[in-house]
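MODEL INPUT / OUTPUT PAIR
PAIR INDEX: 1
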Amino acid sequence: MTPTLKKCTLENLSLLQEISIETFNETFKDQNTPENMKAYLERAFHVEQLKQELTNLSSEFYFVYADGEVAGYLKVNTDEAQSEEMDHDSLEIERIYIRKKYHKQGLGKYLFHKAIEIAVERNKKKVWLGVWEKNKNAIAFYQKMGFIQTGAHSFYMGDEEQVDYIMTKTLTRTN
């Protein structure tokens, strides 16, 4: 299987919403209450919210395809679109989500490398992301990819305050 990538546009809005809800729910529903999941999904993946993100020139979404089907997506942010105040030399990986049936096929790593490639093309010096403190697999993956924890911030899942670790990777010419 050779994955392919396609940049998302407003024409992909309903598919982006569907994949966003599906993958987020698959990833986090077992660790959160149904009420908090519902509140978060309705806010974060509301059509108007996604439309605003898709039309922001400092945000980019990419679908990854496997076997002709959308298997997941990547969202990166620069400048004022970053979810934390960072300098202009930084790129945020806000989302890498893969549908459950495509897990363990290297697609997350593929999207990760695409994000690094975008950062290098834009002459960014750092890549950063927020990862839930309880998502041990993701933390281990990012550490293996050269990220270190540089901070933390609050993330609200419905009315529950959770902690995301901020992890950062300094880019070199060999990334």
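PAIR INDEX: 2
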Amino acid sequence: MSREQRIRIDGMLRRAEPEGPRTVEEIRAGFRELMARMIVPHGRIRTVDTTLGGRPALRVEPRPGPDAGAQDGPDVGVQDGPGVGTILYFHGGGWVFGSPRTALSLTGNLVARTGLGAYSVDYRLAPEHPFPAAVEDTLSAYRDLLDRGEDPSAVVFAGDSAGGGLAVTTCLAARDAGLPLPAAVLAFSPGLDATRTGESMTTKEDADPIFTRAALEHTGAMYLGGADPRQPLLSPALHADLTGFPPVLLQVGANEMLLDDSVRLAARARAAGVDVILDVTADVPHVFQAFAGVLDEADEALDRAALFLRQRIRAGGAARASAARPVGGG
């Protein structure tokens, strides 16, 4: 772990954030520019544009072994449909900006480290499409996976920031719709409290190199579209009943204003009897995992996340095998 790496990234993020209000298009363009600087493991993955649940999506799969050192070429051989396991990924961006492409450093690293395929969903964004459009789209994507024959015990939800929040709220929506739940939920620095009442919103404001309260409330209001934030699908850290949830891994940086979103959700999960891991890394910013390749803590956190996902998929596979095994002798 390198103190110099953390200091360098903190300074870069502070310089990247302009002062004053920006238009939606300026916010979106600035985020694309920032995320284009992240390292994507192109030599270890293959991608193809597809659709899922009626929305555009990016299919990401591990590159076959003989081509592991090559650069991306034509996307032949990337298959839709059931496989050994699937990561259903939801990108970050405050529900206002971002895309599957801006999240590719995260999705790609999870795919490369786990050997699982992924779908990254291009859900509708606010302010053009406020709440609950994003949750409707991510739930539709999950329904589509199930309709294609995916075993839910071989599916995991994952996401970062707003998408980490969607990983949780999509699981809530799936449960309430009577759908079988995925094998696990992984959330990087999730947004889980639209009321913005966590203590870290105040105590971490100087330490956080990305957010200010004003910026979070600006984009948050676009997503809310006038909805009451005091409801489970907007503030699950405060209002969600997590009964019946699959195992959850929450990874968050200690310098984040959103730190208490994860802390409080973990407490609710424990109270509901859910297996939950709260993984807090010191002195790192929001979605620090995106800095894989330049920040040691990012690579280590992604390794822990990949182990968690592989274990949950393997556990699901063992359960399927046990259920299929004949009982008694012949």
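PAIR 2 NOTE: DSSP finds ten helices and eight strands in the chain.
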